[in-house]
Design brief:
With 202 residues, this protein is an alpha/beta fold. It is built from 6 helices and 9 strands. It has helices spanning 14-25, 38-50, 107-123, 148-156, 165-170, 185-194, and strands spanning 2-6, 29-35, 54-61, 64-71, 91-97, 130-133, 160-164, 181-183, 195-201. A 5-stranded parallel sheet has the order 8-7-6-5-9. The protein is elongated. The chain starts with a strand and ends with a strand.
Length: 202
């Protein structure tokens, strides 16, 4: 079975969600999703990887891309079909940071507390599986962030640093991202719901 989805012009995470819905209802086949930006290509590629499915990307023209995800096939590369793609990941702790300061009250104090918190996370084991940033929290992942070195250190240890693309766009910070990856609300939801423990800071 082959299915094509025209997701051009749709804001994240809609291309990912539409693709996931089609993959959920087929036992074998291909879902080809058309998008108009590279971030959507990367988000769809991460979806395929998270589901342990093979995929191909194509550049069709200026601002025109296709991502084809194949289900029901095993690849020589070691990518295998996911037998239960809706099962919880069973991963450990995920930290969600929804503001560039910690707690309510004085802004300067809140930023000091946030810096201290991230330093504590860096220096304490076990480390979280991922740290997710949204709303004004994405200000902490850009090039001039006072937390950048600590976040890069955590990323080098294998902690996934994820920033909401819509939030980066809103604050006009996407080009200034200094650590981690740009993702979408579907991925943020997936990581939060799949974690054994979720800590929300902000």
């Amino acid at each position: 079975m082959k299915k094509e989805i025209d997701a051009k012009g749709l804001a994240c995470p809609r291309p990912v969600i539409l693709t996931k819905k089609e993959l959920d209802v087929i036992s074998a086949g291909e879902v080809k999703t058309l998008v108009d930006n590279q971030v959507a290509v990367e988000n769809l590629s991460r979806l395929a990887t998270s589901l342990k499915l093979s995929y191909e990307t194509e550049v069709l023209g200026e601002n025109s891309f296709a991502v084809t995800i194949k289900k029901g096939e095993s690849e020589d590369t070691g990518v295998v079909e996911a037998s239960n793609v809706n099962a919880p990941s069973g991963k450990g702790t995920v930290i969600v940071i929804q503001s560039d300061q910690m707690g309510k009250g004085d802004e300067a104090l809140g930023k000091i507390l946030m810096k201290s918190y991230i330093y504590t996370v860096k220096e304490t084991t076990p480390h979280p599986e991922a740290i997710l940033f949204y709303n004004s929290g994405v200000r902490l992942t850009v090039n001039d962030s006072p937390l950048l070195d600590d976040l890069k250190y955590l990323e080098n240890l294998g902690v996934e640093i994820v920033s909401c693309g819509t939030c980066l766009d809103f604050y006009e910070l996407k080009e200034k991202l200094g650590v981690g990856i740009i993702s979408n609300m579907y991925t943020i939801y997936e990581k939060m719901s799949g974690a054994n423990n979720t800590i929300t800071i902000g």
